[in-house]
Specification:
4-stranded antiparallel beta sheet; 12 strands; 181 residues; 36% strand
C-alpha cells in the first residue's frame, strides 16, 4: 500500500510540475488620437492653393461675339467631414490695365462664367454641365461633398465681354472656398 501511495504522490508531483509556467509580466499603454477637423482645397495641376493664371486672348471678331472657354481646370478637396464649395471674384469689377482713361468698368458678374464638367465629390451642384456667373458675392455651388482624401471636380470657365470695352488687360481673382459641415 505504501508503494501505491508513493507512486500516486509521484504521479501527482509530475502532473503538477508539467502544468507549471514560467514567470510572466505584462505592460499596457494608452494610445490617444487627437483628431481635429481638417480640410484642404487645391489645384491638381500644381498641388497648390494657387492655380496657374488663365489667359483669354480675344483676337478675332468671333472671339468677341461668342466668348472664349478655358481648358478644364481640375481641383481636389481633402476633408474629414462633409463639405460645401463656394466661389466669388475678388472684386465687383475687373481691374483694368491699358491706355483708356478713365478706366472702363467691366462688371465681373456679367462677363465671367463657369460650369462643372466633372464632379467626383459625392456632393450635389446645379452647375453640372451648365454655366453660371461668378461675381463678388460668395455663393455656394456644391453641397454635401463626401469626406475623403481625393474628392475632385473639374471646371471650365467662359468669358463673354462683348464689343463694349476697349483694348487692354482685365484681371480678377476667382476665389474658391471649401467649408466643412
Amino acid at each position: 500500500m505504501k508503494k501505491i501511495l508513493l507512486f500516486t504522490a509521484l504521479l501527482l508531483g509530475i502532473a503538477s510540475a508539467s502544468k507549471a509556467q514560467a514567470p510572466a509580466s505584462t505592460a499596457s499603454q494608452t494610445t490617444n488620437l487627437n483628431l481635429t477637423n481638417a480640410i484642404e482645397l487645391s489645384f491638381v495641376a500644381n498641388s497648390s492653393a494657387t492655380g496657374a493664371a488663365l489667359n483669354f486672348a480675344f483676337n478675332t471678331v468671333n472671339d468677341y461675339a461668342n466668348g472664349l472657354e478655358s481648358a478644364p481646370v481640375q481641383m481636389n478637396v481633402r476633408s474629414n467631414k462633409t463639405f460645401n464649395l463656394s466661389v466669388k471674384s475678388s472684386g465687383a469689377y475687373f481691374n483694368y490695365s491699358g491706355t483708356t482713361t478713365p478706366a472702363p468698368q467691366m462688371y465681373v458678374g456679367s462677363v465671367l462664367y463657369f460650369k462643372m464638367t466633372q464632379n467626383n465629390t459625392g456632393g450635389w451642384s446645379w452647375v453640372n454641365n451648365r454655366y453660371d456667373y461668378i461675381d463678388h458675392y460668395n455663393w455656394t455651388f456644391l453641397y454635401n461633398g463626401t469626406n475623403g482624401g481625393d474628392q475632385n471636380f473639374t471646371l471650365v470657365y467662359k468669358v463673354t465681354p462683348g464689343f463694349t470695352f476697349p483694348a487692354g488687360t482685365y484681371t480678377t481673382d476667382v476665389i474658391f472656398t471649401a467649408t466643412q459641415q
